[in-house]
Specification:
The protein is built from 15 helices and 18 strands. The protein is α/β, with parallel strands linked by helices. The longest helix is centred in the first third of the chain and has 25 residues.
Amino acid sequence: MPIATTNPATGQVLKTYDPMSDEQVDAAIERTDLAFRDLRRTSIAQRGRWMSAAADRLDAERDDTARLMTTEMGKTYAAAKAEVTKCAAACRFYAAHAERMLADEPADARAVKAVRAFVRYQPLGPVLAVMPWNFPLWQVIRFAAPALMAGNTGLLKHASNVPQTALYLEDLFRRAGFPEGAFTTLLVGSQAVDRILADPRVRAATLTGSEGAGRSIAASAGRNLKKTVLELGGSDPFVVMPSADLDRAAEVATTARCQNNGQSCIAAKRFIVHADVYDAFAERFVANMAALRVGDPMDADTDVGPLATERGRDEVDAQVRDAADKGASVLCGGELPAGDGWFYPPTVVADLRPGMRMWSEEVFGPVAGLFRVSSYDEAVEVANGSAYGLGSNAWTTDPAEQERFADDLDAGSVFVNGMTTSFPELPFGGVRNSGYGRELSALGMREFCNTKTVWVGEGAPSAGAGAHAE
């Protein structure tokens, strides 16, 4: 894929960039390594002032930044503005709470025969972030804010279709006051990642992307013994039980499936409904999906804009056609619209069976799969029947069922009677083919820290002491 801004609403290429040479990449890594030596010695309070300044700039530049994101990847302008606001809030959260999250944690000194013993969290160094286009600002900020506050520096290899957003992020942290090189954008293709990870100055990597990209990063990092955090794809279940508020569930289901034009790893994708309420829920859900307005993402009345790439739109269409050809029922949508741009209508597909692509694959667009189940156990079986395990939703007002879903759904998060989303205050990540490690919260900050044990004894050890220490 060329490094270029292509408006997905029109297919027009607006700006292209030449990839950085190996020499330019090496120079950028050197700057980032030098910046790490500087940043790690600054106080958390100073980093917090810089991070707060970044938040202020995000707020001040919200409209222009949102317009840039909409132009590059097609999300609605309203959604883009909300994304910028969320990023500013995350920066302020880490500016306010990093000192507590990174504070030394005392241990029981007497139990370990010490005068003093504690755990200290220290930064690792330059971290490579390989980021996707679907939330081009938020995906980066939720790595960058905790990483920079911990004293790490960042190297961003962003998706090749959002280069202007990538360059904006580098400029944002520079203008906020962080040392030159503390956060650097690398305009390179995916083929350059292996070489960057092999550089000894790069200490770790984080990736949000496809399962295939995750396997590639993990293999490269493993060869080079680098720490990784992977947030990969998802095919999140949305389970509706008989006690659920069906009107509310159908309303949230529509938003959960079509947020960001349906291009979200944690979007609800498989709607698993108990037979007792299946028809009533399906009627509401299909009506809501069919009523969404597809069009120009800059128009305030638009609910769903174009998909980010022509290839992505064609893949979604192929998945729906495969299901229909094998006997599934298309309850709304399912037809490619005429005209320019990479649009796809909100679509609901029922009667899915094993052997259909939609049964086992993630669908990255505004397409919902609808499943009928006859019991709680069957609902959990279908929900967990995917290779993915990122997020999950359960809709029930029965307290006992709520507790069972919290235990039984095999995912990184379980949201009961609400839409799966990410918060700076809560850890975020998946299990199985959805990756490993956690972003956000204190756990996310500490993923790229050396969790160092410090043991302090009294005076010099006696002769022979420690002979059997391990």
